[in-house]
Fold this sequence. Notes:
Layout: H1 7-15, H2 22-29, H3 31-42, E1 46-49, E2 59-63, H4 70-88, H5 91-111, H6 133-155, H7 159-178, H8 187-209
Antiparallel strand pairs: 1-2
Helix pairs in contact: 1-2, 1-6, 2-5, 2-8, 3-8, 4-5, 6-7, 7-8
Amino acid sequence: MFIGHWAPALAAAATSDRAPRLGTLFVAAQLVDWAFFGLLLAGVENMRFSPGISAMNAMDLYHMRYTHSLLGSTVFAILFGCGLWLLLRDRTAALLGAAVVLSHWFLDLLVHVPDLTLAGSPPKLGLGLWNHPAIEMPLELAITFGALVWYVRARRPALLRALVLGGVLLLLQAINWFGPVEPDVTAGTSLLAFFAYGLATLAAWWTGKSAAKPA
Length: 215
């Protein structure tokens, strides 16, 4: 799951006038991965590239006990929600933001081969849709662009900006699916992830600024 993680952000923004801004929700949706790639740079969590580990993704995510455990994701969700409450003093916004953060783990559970945990130690969990491209690919596109259409209908952002956001998401997903596999994990691995997440978040922020209601 890659751009599919932003579907809950779009849905939350479409659901309530009191939701945080769309750019903020895009950060929430990938907060767990922002943290993972930061900890990867620091050597606290680890991965390697292992072509063939699944049909669609060569990342062997063998050590990510802090970010990709259900417990860890819950902690990130609580901290993010508390931060929103302190900034906005709005319980609905805080709860929506926290829910978007926590959605990351459950969406990963659908697609990952078993590498997720409940509290950082085995058993490792994952339903493995990465081994079933004919299911995973249309599912990811459907939830992402279905949520984008919902957001556009509910919040009426400038159409050109919404189309740019959709184009950025589609381009990032195409690179994720069909781009070359890196031979080794380097600092560039994390920097490339940060660039992709940042580009999508920037496009979401720009789109949300044109929405008819707070986005």
